[in-house]
Amino acid sequence: MIGGLRPPVIDERGIVGAIEYLADPAHRDDNLRIDFAHRVQFNRLTALQESTLFRIVQEALHNADRHSGTKRVRVLLEQRSDTIYLEIRDWGKGFDAANRPGRRFGLRGIEERSRLLGGSAEIESAPDKGTVVRVTLPLKNNCPTDLLETES
C-alpha cells in the first residue's frame, strides 16, 4: 500500500530516474514509444515535488495510452532558473480542450496537483492535433508545511 502512495523507484532513483522507469517499455503493458529528455541541475527535489511530478507524468501517459490513439509520447523535464518545467506531448486524436467534459478527473488532478505546489498546469489539445500537458512548479518549495509532512 505504501508503494502505491510513493513508489520506491522515486526514493531509489530520484525524479529523473523515476520518469526513465516510466518510459522503459519493460515496466509497462502498453505499446507507446516514450521519448524522455531532461535538462536539470538539481540532484533531488522535495519528496512532495518528486511524487507530484511522477504522478502527473503517470497520469498523462495513461491518458495518452487510453484516449489518444497515439503510439508516441515525448516527456521533457527542464530546470529553468528557479522553475521546474514538465511537458508531456502526444500526437494522438486530441480533443476540444475548450469544451472538456467535467468528468475528466485525471486532467483536473494534474491541474490541482500543480496548483497545490504553487505552480500551474496547462492542457492544450484540439481534434486531430494531439495533446500537450505543460506544468510549471517553483523549484523552491512554497507549499504548505502540512502537505510536506504528509508526504515524508
List keywords for this structure.
five-stranded mixed β-sheet; alpha+beta; 5 helices; single chain
State the secondary-structure class. Answer: alpha+beta
Alpha-carbon distance between the two ends: 15 Å
Main beta-sheet strand count, sense and barrel state: 5 strands, mixed
Strand order of the largest sheet: 1-2-3-5-4
Helix content: 40-55%
Helix tally equals: 5
Number of strands: 5
Instruction: Round the mean pLDDT to the nearest integer and report it.
Output: 88
Query: What proportion of the residues form beta strands (DSSP E)?
Result: 25-35%
What order do the SSEs take from the amino end to the carboxyl end, as H and E? HHEHEEHEEH
Tell me the radius of gyration.
15 Å
In the predicted model, the low-confidence regions spanning at least 5 consecutive residues are 144-152
Give the overall shape, derived from the CA principal axes. globular
